[in-house]
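Colleagues,

Please find the record for the two-part complex below.
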Amino acid sequence: MYGREEKVPILRLAVAQYVILAIFLLLVYGLWRLQVMQSERYTNMAEQNRIKEVPILAPRGRLLDREGRPIVDNYPSFSALLLRSQGKISEANLDAIAIGLHLDATELKNRVRRLSSMPGYQPIFLKFDITPDELAFIESHRNEYPELDTITVHRRLYPKNGFMAHLVGYVGEVSEEMLNQPRFELYNSGDVVGQSGIEAEYNDTLMGKNGSRRVMVNSKGKEVGELSDTPAVPGKALQLTIDLDLQIAAEEALGDRPGAIVAMDPRSGEILAMVSRPTFDPNSFAVHISNKEWTALLNDPGKPLLNKAIQAQLAPGSVFKVIMSVAGLQEKAITPEQKVVCNGGADFYGHFFKCDRHHGPVSMAQAISVSCDTYFYTLGARLGITRIAQWASAFGLGQKSGIDLPQEASGVMPSESWKIKTQKQKWYAGETISVSIGQGAVAVTPIQLARAIGAITSDGQLRTPHLVRPDSLPPQYTAAQHYNDVKTVPIDSDAWTLITDAMADVTTTGTASMAHLPGIDFAGKTGTAQTISLEARKRMGTSAGKAFEDNAWFVGVTPRRNPEIVVAVLSQGAGWGWRSGIVASKIVKVYVDKKAAHDAGRPYTLPKIEPVAPGADSGEAPSSQPSTPAATPPAANPPKTGNNQAALRMGGVWSDPTGHLHSGNFSLDNTSAANHAAPFHRATAAPGMEAFADAASNMRATNAPTHNNVPSDNKLPRSSPHWTPTLATLPAPGWRMRGEQ
Amino acid sequence: MSRYIRFRDFDWVLLGFVLLICALGVSEIYSATLHTKFEGMYLRQIYWIMAGVVLLFIVSLMNYHSLLEAVPWMYGFSLLSLISVLVFGKKYLGARRWIDFRVFHFQPSEWVKLILILTMAKYFADYRANELPFRELVKAGLVVLFPMLLVLKQPDLGTALTYVPIAIMALFLGGMKARHGIVLLLVAAVLMPAVWKWGLKPYQKERLMTFIAPEADARGAGYQVIQSQVAVGAGGVWGKGIAKGTQTQGQFLPVPHTDFIFAAWSEEHGFVGALLVLLLYFGVLMRLIHDAQTAPDRAGVFLIMGVVAVLAFHVLVNVGMVVGFMPVTGIPLPMMSYGGSSILFTFLALGIVMNVRMRRFVN
C-alpha cells in the first residue's frame, strides 16, 4: 500500500542534507571561535574563576616599654560577613540577621543590594568586632543562614583612657591617597597601617608582611586544594625607651590639664616619658571610627590629636633665660659678678619693659633664681638678636629635634634675616628685649626645651631624642645608628657651674621653691609665658582673659650637673611656672625613688600620683620664702581624660586553665572611680594592657584588688602567626565581663 | 512479510556511530560527576543505554506499518497523557512535566515527540501528493500545534520547540510551496511580539535577554552562558584532559553531565575532541538521510527524516547554546547527556529507523 513510486523528491532530501551541513559548519565555527581564536582569554577567565588568594594576616608587632612591659598588643576580633557564593539571600533572612547582629534592617538590605554587583566570592562585611552574643547568634544559626560567616582578625589594643595615645599613635586602613605616595607603594588596599605616632613612624617594621595562600576553589567558593603557601612574617616588636613607671607618673601628674610633658635621659637622648593633653582613645580607631567621632576629634578646640610634646609651638618664657645666661657668659657680654639694678623694669629704646617685681641689684645667679626680667632685658640689649639667635639655635631651639615621630614642629627662633624673609620687615631693637625673656616671636616645642636645657646642664652635649631602642630596630633605620653622636656646644666650666647652681636655687629659694624635693639634687627653671600681651588681656576684661591665661613652663633636671633626667612640663593656662615645677618634681621623685629601689635591690612600687590642681588665680605671686614642698591640693574633681565617654566594648573567646572555652563581652573601664580608686602597685603593663603582661615576668602583687576571678597564671594571647584566637585567654584588670558590673 | 527481514540489512554502521557517541558521553558523565553528589551516574547511563539497545532491537522487529496504523490511537493517547500531566503531574522547579509512577517518573512530552513523527509520516503517506495546498498545510500544522500548546502550558518551552522541526521537516518534504513558507514566516514574525508579551514566563524572557547580553547579569542569569563559553574556550585545541577541566571539576559549569555536557567535553578534550563528536553526529545524520533515500516507501522517508529533524535540532540548539549561539533552553544533547528519557527516546527513534531500513527490499 505504500509504494516506492510515491517517494518524496530526491531534491528536497538533498536540501535537508545541505541545511544540516550548514548547521554543523556553523557549530564548528562557534567552537573554532572559542577554542582556537579566543582560547587564551577564556583560559585566563577560567583561572580567575578557580584560583583565590587568601591572605594570611601578619600580626602587628607589639610595643614594649624599656623593661619589656607591654604597652600595645593585639587581640582577636571577630567580624561578621555575608558570603554570597551561596546564592541570593532572602529579605526575610536579612531581617532576622539584622536583629541578631543588632543592625538596622533597612540599612543592611540597602548595603547588600548596593554591593551585589561585586564578584560573588567577595564577602560583604556586615559588622566589625562583634560581641560574643552576636557571635553566638551566628554559630547557632549556621544551618539556617549558611551565608552568614565570621572572620577572625588581629586588632590593636591600646592602653585605656588615651594613655600614651599621642606617642603610640593609631592604625587605620590605608587610604587611597596614601597608596599614591611612593613610600606606601608596596602596600595594598585594605592594609592596616600606622596613621600617627610610633605606629606610623615604624609601620614597616611593626606591620610585618602578610602571607598568602593560593587555593583552588569551586563555584561555591569552597577550597578544594592548595597551590602554594607563603607564610606571614609577623611584625617585629619594638622596645621603646619609655619607662612605664615614669610614664604613668607623668600622665597622672599632668592630670586633665592641657599641656605636655617630655622626660628624657640627656646622656643618651632616650625619651623616658611623653604626655600630651587632651588625649584621645586610639582604640576607637582600631575598630572602626564613626564619621561623627572623627569629626568631633578634628573639631575639638583642645586639638586632642595634636602631640603637644613635639607639635605645640609656644613662647618658652623665662626658661629661655638659661640659654641667655650661657650666651651672655660665653660671649662675655656680662660677667658673673656684674649686677643689674631692677626697679620693676627698665627703659629700652624708648619703651618701658616691665619686670614682675622690684628685685634691686641682681647678679646672674640671682637673676636666674628669681627670674628677674630686667637683668635679661639688659643682657639681651647687650647681646643683640643675632648672637641670641646663634646660641639658641646651637641648642636646637627653632629646629626639629629629630625625634623618631612623624610631623614634628620646628618652632621659630627669630633673627633679623628670619624677619626679613618671613615678614619682609626690618627687625626692631625692641623685639630683642622681648626675645630676651622668651617672649616675642620665639616659639619652641616642649621637646626642644627639654633637649636644650638637658644639653646645657650636660656641659653642652646635645643628643638626638628618640623613642625606640636602636637594638630593636632593623638596620635600614640608619638614623638609629647615630643616636650616640654628640653635638657639643662648648661652655666654660665656670659658666656651667654658675648656671646649674643657680638652677638648683630655683627649686630651693627661687621661683619654684614649692617644688623642692628634700634630699634630691633637683635643678630647673620656671617659665610663665604670656599667650597674649598684658594690654590685650586687660582690654578683654577678666572673664574673657581667662582663656588666655599664661602657660606655665618648667624644665628640671636631676642632678644639677650631668643630669640623668631632664623633664620639661608645659601646663597651658596654669598661670605661674612653679605649678609645672611641682608636676616635674613628682616625675623626678619617681625617677630617683625607683633608681634607689633598684640600687638597693628592692622592687619598686609606684605610688599614687595626684594631679596638680590647676592654678585658680594666676594673679597670685609665688612666695619668695623657702617653703616645705607644697602639699598637693586634693583634686577637686576626679580627673577625666579627653574622650573617655564611649567605653570600648569588645567580644572575645578564651579558655580558662582547665581548657573550658568562655566567651564574653568586655568593656574598657572608663569610670574615673576605677581609674583612681586603686593606686598602681607595680606597673606590669600600660593601663588597660595588664592582661598582656608576660606571665613569666608577672610582677603583679598577689593582692592586686582589680583582678577578679581571672587566674593569675593565665596563658595570654601573644602575637604569633600560629596564634589560635579561639583558644586565647583574655582579659584581666581594666576589663570587665558584661554582667559583672 | 517478516521472512524478508534480515539483520544483514540492519544498519550496523549507524549503531556503531551511535554507541560510540554514547560511550564518549558516558566517559564525560564519569568525569564531570567525579567528587560530586552525582558520582557514579555514568553507570546508570550505561544501564539506560543497554535498555535502549534492547528496545532498539525490539522496535526494529515490529513492522512500522502496523505502528502507522495505530497512529490515531497513539495521537489521542498523547493528547490525553499531556492533559493528565497538567492535572496530575508532579510539580518540580515550578513546572509540571512528569507523572510520578512511583517506580519511575514518566515525562510524556518526550514520547509525544515520537508519536508526532509517526503522525506526520502517516499524514503525509496518506496524502500522497508532491504539492501541498495551503489547507492541508494548516491541517498538518494544527496536528503538531495542539500537543505543542499543551507542553507549553507545563511550561516546557524547550521540549515544545522540538516539535517545530518535526512539523517543518514534514511540511517541507510534503511539498510545501515556497510562498506558503514565506507566509508562515511572516505570521511567525507578526506573532512574535504577542508571544513575548503574553506567551512567555518571566524566566523565559530572562533567558532570552541573557542570551542577547549575558554580561549584563554575569552572576545571575548570564552565569550559565558565560561559564559555558569559558569552559569551551579554556579547553583550547587539545583540551585539559579527562577529569582535569577546572570549569567542570570546580562546578563552575552548571549541570555538566546533562544539558552542558558538550561544554564539559569541549573543555576536557579541546577543539579536536569537540570536532570529533560533531563529526560523529554529522555521520549519524548523514547515514540517516542515506537510509531515508533508500527507504521502501514514502512513510519510511517521513519517519526517518522526522528523526533526523529532531536529532539535528537537538544538536543545533544544545551545541549552539554551549558555544553561545542559542539561548539556554534546557534541551539535552541526544546520546551524550545523562538522562533515561532522552536515551530511550533516541533509541526508540533509531529502532524505527532500523525497522524502515530492514524493510528496504520489501516488495
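The first strand of chain B starts at residue 90 and ends at 92.

Comments are welcome before we finalize the supplementary table.
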